[in-house]
From TrEMBL:
Residue ranges constituting the AB hydrolase-1 domain according to the UniProt record: 69-346
Pfam families listed in its UniProt record: Abhydrolase_1
Biological process, per Gene Ontology: proteolysis
Coiled coil stretches, renumbered: none
Species this chain originates from: Ruminococcus albus (strain ATCC 27210 / DSM 20455 / JCM 14654 / NCDO 2250 / 7)
Family, per entry: Belongs to the peptidase S33 family.
Gene3D superfamilies linked to this entry: alpha/beta hydrolase
SUPFAM superfamilies: alpha/beta-Hydrolases
Protein's name according to its UniProt entry: Alpha/beta hydrolase fold protein
MF term (GO), any: aminopeptidase activity
Length: 365
């Protein structure tokens, strides 16, 4: 009996300790969130859902000086918002810009609270970014803004800048993409060289058709990337502690975080974008509406252009952005290679902040 009491006492204290640790974790998270919710003196720190083209979409606005120019961050994917962890990066740009983060249709907090059950089209996406921009400019009292695109967001943001120079004063691309179809063509060309001493895998590469997006061909491109292009580690590359950023995220509840992590862990393309990327209506599925955003033949920019991309970016292609940059005509332009893969140009937050500061200085001179 005495032994039982001792064991029960031990379990009681273990339970108390565990409950105390859980409470401590929640308290630490609460304090961190409240600190991140503070509004800088003379600045702005807001989040909201705005009416955009028949839906409600989430944005946040953060800046340390309301007189600074405005920057619209256009995330990648398509359909993969980074709002779960990107605020430490974007806030490092807030000395130079008032930064607007936007979860696009069918993505992130926009999708979690106001689900979009249809399929996106190029026309729909173009209307969305136009309306978001107009809302932001009206709210901040500015006439133009700077577009900061990342990955797919460089196609989306670049297309918008070229289509609406009356609203865009500067374009910045990180992890620049130029032509989605061309990525796969170049992947095969590179893989033929990489696999020349591996006869069996070389046969698989030779059989790969980069113009077809059937499951069989997608599996081949995935195999190629898995074998030769795994140089990205979003948790270790750069200086952004993604887990800490998610834990102290001022915009996300625990329920939001659960939904966000669930989407990332699934590895699946958001359903709203399935037909946008692959057109399965044909016998041999081809690339979808995303190809409509190709920048390949669009090289005359009325505004300054600045590109920061990875020299080992085989999620996209390391050569494609530089070749495109060399063809661009713009009032001012600069190109910077980062020693790393696809995600590094953005999650190297200190390097990005330095790059953006230089952009701000050049645009102000």
């Amino acid at each position: 009996m005495k032994c039982v009491k001792i064991i029960l006492g031990i379990f009681k204290w273990i339970f108390i300790v565990l409950i105390s640790l859980v409470l401590l974790i929640f308290i630490v998270r609460f304090i961190g969130q409240q600190i991140n919710k503070l509004t800088p003196s003379g600045g702005i720190n807001e989040e909201m859902y705005i009416d955009i083209n028949g839906t409600k979409q989430w944005i946040s606005i953060y800046g340390r000086d309301k007189s600074n120019p405005v920057m619209l961050y256009v995330h990648g994917g398509p359909g993969i918002a980074t709002s779960g962890f990107d605020y430490p990066v974007l806030r490092k740009l807030a000395d130079d810009y008032t930064v607007v983060n936007w979860d696009q249709r069918g993505a992130g907090k926009s999708q979690m609270k106001y689900p979009f059950d249809g399929y996106v089209t190029p026309e729909l996406l173009r209307e969305d970014i136009y309306e978001v921009t107009k809302y932001v400019l009206d709210k901040t009292g500015k006439e133009k803004l700077t577009v900061l695109g990342s990955s797919w967001g460089t196609l989306y943001g670049g297309d918008f800048a070229l289509s609406h120079p009356e609203l865009v004063e500067c374009y910045i691309g990180t992890s620049q993409v130029v032509d989605y179809q061309d990525i796969y063509i170049r992947l095969k060309e590179s893989a033929l060289e990489w696999s020349k001493d591996d006869a069996e895998f070389h046969k698989l590469v030779e059989s790969y058709d980069p113009l077809v997006f059937s499951q069989e061909e997608i599996d081949k491109s995935t195999a190629i990337r898995k074998k030769y292009c795994q140089n990205d580690n979003i948790l270790k590359d750069g200086d952004l502690n993604i887990l800490a950023a998610m834990f102290f995220n001022p915009y996300y509840s625990l329920k939001d975080l659960y939904g966000y992590i669930k989407v990332f862990a699934s590895g699946k393309m958001p359903s709203a974008y399935e037909k946008f990327i692959y057109d399965a209506s044909q016998e041999k599925p081809r690339i979808g509406g995303i190809q409509d955003f190709s920048l390949k033949a669009r090289t005359e920019y009325p505004m300054p252009v600045y590109i920061r991309t990875g020299n080992k970016d085989y999620q996209s292609n390391p050569d494609q952005p530089k070749e495109y940059f060399d063809m661009i005509t713009a009032p001012d332009k600069e190109f910077e290679y980062v020693d790393g893969g696809h995600f590094l140009p953005f999650i190297d937050s200190e390097g990005l902040a330095v790059f953006v500061h230089k952009v701000r200085e050049r645009s102000a001179s």
